[in-house]
Amino acid sequence: MKNLFLLVTIFLCYENYSQTKPFPANFIFNNGLMATNKNSLDATDNYNTWKSNFTEACSNGRWRVKFNSSETVSEGIAYGMLLSVYKGDKDLFDGLWLYYKDNVNSNGVMNWKIKGCSEVVGNNGATDAELDAAFALIVADYQWGSIGSINYKNDAKTLIAAIKTHEVEANTFVLKPGDDFGQSQIINPSYFSPAYYRAFGAFTNDTAFWNAVASKSYVIINNNLTVNNAVGGLVSDWCEASGNYSPEAQPRGYVNAGKTYTYDACRTPWRIAVDYLWYGTPDAKTYSKKASDFVRITLGGTTNIKDGYNQNGTLIGQWHNAPFVGAFACAAMAGENQAHLDASYADLKSTNEPGNYFNHTLKTLYSFLLTGNFYLPPTATLSNDDFDIEKSEITLYPNPSADKFIIYAPENSTITVFSPQGNLISEQKTLSENTEINLANQSSGLYLIKITNGTKSVTKKVILK
């Protein structure tokens, strides 16, 4: 009997694997290639260096990411949220998000530069930060649920609504570079995150809008490549929606008037590769292969990458570093050449600039994707109000438990609990996707929890210790 109980326990623990996905996830994407030499220990080492060198505690549980010794930028906070949520570093994630919220403007987005913990020195938002932060909140809702002190789900929806209202140009679906800056006349293609948009649409039941923003991103990228006779996916740092160079870029002091592929544009292959790896988007595949082939064929390999190009492919940079190497390595995941991907992974690993905020942060983000630790959570794959329970991921944890169980299930489901003898213990409607069931007053044993949504249901077995 004891052996049977042990087997049941093992089975249940496996079947009801916690919704928190521990690091390393080592996810194998349905699309593209994975480096044969990938190792999540590389991602861990990069994360530990990043956290040690660039995070700093404020007060009241707040944390900031150091852009330099005294300043923090919203981009860095959002990068940190992505890294910490995938790493499962909840205390740091919560501290970064609280810092973000402490420093928002009237539109609900973080002022882009802060001195220390609270002095605003750069007003209004930078859209890439909002996009990364909103998606990180979706992952946090998946990782830890939203019944604690921070409701990640509601905060994600609120931030996504702010992005839609203030950072997408009305009636054009053009992503603006900020809430109080930019329109079709000045755009930053490296902010485009079409994979996030698809997740936002599913998460907020607004797929038509966000899919249109994703489609417009590819229109602008392709316009920019076409009108400027670009090679290999080398988008310019800044442009208009037409693809032409923006006359507003030079007065703003952007490098080379925003006409070249430098430290803004270099992130584009990473962001677009994600859309192929997660969703298999054909436009993402086409772009990623162009970028990968530029390195593999035109440059003759990853070790020849430098930090800047004209759009025709001629060299203007001089340094071989992670922001450029790693983004092209991500593109190689869609590039159909395993040897080149493996070489790109090894090349990124060999870069070593632990004291450079931008370079090392991006190296760490790239290494998370390359090792399968930057993934699409299942909670962002189906709409909350159109949730097929047979296709959804019903999770329940911890199991076994001495008292409480947390159930992740569609909203407006009915959760029914039965005793070991088959008697009805409780029945309730879910008000959110995370519901707590407290069996502290019940006897130890095997309980059945039935989750019903519409005409469909699933039953989970739990052990109360």
UniProtKB/TrEMBL annotation:
- Ranges for domain Secretion system C-terminal sorting: 396-463
One Gene Ontology molecular-function label: hydrolase activity
What EC number(s) does its UniProt record assign?
Answer: 3.2.1.4
- Broadest EC class assigned to this enzyme: hydrolase
Q: What is this protein called?
A: cellulase
Q: What family is reported?
A: Belongs to the glycosyl hydrolase 8 (cellulase D) family.
Give the matching InterPro entries: 6-hairpin_glycosidase_sf, 6hp_glycosidase-like_sf, Glyco_hydro_8, Secre_tail
